[in-house]
Amino acid sequence: MTGPAEEFPDDFPDGYQRPVSGSAWIPGPRGPADDLDPRHAPDPLPQEPPEPAPAPTPPPAREPSCEPSCEPSQEPVSEPVSEPVSDPVSDPLSDPSVEDIAVPGPPPSHAVLKSLLGAWALAACSAEETRAVEDHLTECAPCAEEALRLRDAVGLLQPEETLDLKPLLRSRVLEDCLGRRPARIPVPTWATPYDTETARLDALLRDFGDAEWHTPVRLKWFEEERRQTRRTTVAGVIGHLLTVDGLVAAALGLDDPLGPQAPPGGPTDRTEHFWNSHPHPATRQVREPWREQGHTLIRTVSFAGRGVAELAVDYGHFALPLGDAFLERAFECWVHAWDIAEAVDYPYEAPSGPHLHQMIDLAARLLPGALAERRRAGLAAPARGLVAAGAPGRTLHLEIEGAGGGGWDIALDSPAAKPSAEHTVAHVALEGTEFCRLAAGHISPEEAAAGQHGDREAIRDVLTAAASLSRL
């Protein structure tokens, strides 16, 4: 029998429990640092498991003192260790003060990593697999070579494409939309190229910053038997298009962009007036009025009806029907967009085949008149014979290859003469964009890569007349 149980405090100052009277004392779980202290060596005697007890409350922190403790003690008491007290019934490794240490697994084998090379080349691996494969490639030369071959193969499976929209995409989308639901008021066929080319140029200008708007651009045309040039900026080119489009606007009764002070001359005089009337060079602010004027022109001719195509547009030294004037404006818009793209080092595609064909057809129809005008000025060989209006005369066959190409017979002796295959004296073959560059004055007749056969004098006169169609 044991005597009455002595009353002891619940805990020692160091956090360990007091032994129960009459039973062996079992210390609570210790911190990892206690294993190094010989005073806390475990009792080698067999001990009974302790009864479940509530978790002790950690004692409040005390200031160190040199006075001896007044509490009864059976063994020397050391100063408490500054570590959190663990739960007596919990695992010491679950102590929240001890961080969990992730034990890394064995690295993947060479065979596993080699099998992941295909997924790695396709960027289909997880982050861990990608890291493991790339670490392996720095150590294994055969796998590194195989990885390079797989990456090259992936590039062939899906080649990189430009972010620019394809030139024909807009036309295909509009054609599909109009096929499903025709426009209540359609755009005339002769105005469609102008609508398309202004939209393409506007898309090129949309992302231009201030620096691009002031990029130098050199305009080129053919005049007085030699090439002429004029230096301006991207904004100056758009101002030039704005002022010349104003001739078409004036023919339709719309407001002239130059206002009441517009000079009475042709495109060159109007452009010079616009460039010289501003104290500072044109900026990106010119884009909005140019684009709005283009939209207004398209809306106006769409609502005007069929007869409007024959309305004359005065260009100063000559006049064109409104339908041909829209084709001429579409051609100049494309040519100057090409100049701008070349100045900023950006690729620019040619118009679609049907639109390019309409532009080439206009130039071919203007060639007999341009040839006759040069003959009156003494710049071309005289006619070989007088031909009555409507009678067949000497003919040159112009063949245009590529997109938008075709064949045209050009009357040589008189604009009123009728071209005839039986009276063909020369044949010229040109690629479509090459002929357009010639008609725009960007290359000289001698530089045009033309296939020629027949009367050399007639061929030279026609090619020179094509270059004379250009102007500022």
Brief rundown of the structure:
This protein has 472 residues and is an alpha+beta fold. It has helices spanning 110-115, 117-121, 127-137, 141-157, 169-180, 192-205, 210-213, 234-251, 267-276, 287-304, 322-343, 353-376, 432-439, 456-468; strands at 216-223, 226-233, 312-314, 319-321, 395-401, 406-411, 424-431, 451-454.
Structure description:
The chain has 472 residues and is an alpha+beta fold. Helices cover 39% and strands 10% of the residues. It has 14 helices and eight strands. The protein has helices at residues 110-115, 117-121, 127-137, 141-157, 169-180, 192-205, 210-213, 234-251, 267-276, 287-304, 322-343, 353-376, 432-439, 456-468; strands at 216-223, 226-233, 312-314, 319-321, 395-401, 406-411, 424-431, 451-454. It has a four-stranded mixed β-sheet with strand order 6-5-7-8. A two-stranded antiparallel sheet has the order 1-2. The protein is elongated.
